[in-house]
Here is the input.
Amino acid sequence: YTGEGDVTKQVDLLRAVPFKDQAKITSALAFDMKHALTRTGFQAQLEAGEEAKSYTATVTNIAITGVKNKGTLNLDTGVWTLDGTSTADYALTVTKGINTTGGNHSFNTGTTADFTARALNSDDSYMMLMPQVLGTAPKLSITVNYTGGVMNETVTSDFDLKDLLVDGSGEWKAGKGVTYMIKIKGKFVNIAVYTW
Here is the structure.
């Protein structure tokens, strides 16, 4: 399996545990489907304390780089054997903004709502990535465009993916979801991670 490089064309990958040597019956044969990839999503919000400031922060690009993208899946066990040399970069262009003045922005809510998490990817633009132990190479890059007040610039912040997972495993797991929460406070970006 090789992961699709274009996020908008990625699909989920399911596997079924085979039921061998089954007798023919009149009812349907039940089998258990399992997700084989890791679903990765993104949200953003303003940090508390930014209410008195006047600027717009627009997350324009999210990139995950240097992750493994090719491997062989054992359908019986669900264990991946990854190609250690094949890596890929994935990018998600984002057009939604967070506005501290409550003006016209794509979240279509008032100012106070901008301090509540908002999804940056639509249902069809989650990144479906290979489960893997994240080494030192994989990175998460967040680009934010600031306008208004004294903040008129674009800032890119980079993070080591292995350091962000709160369970300490440094691993994306098959059939699990990871949400990276981008918390904006002025020109600083922090990341919180939620898994399910």
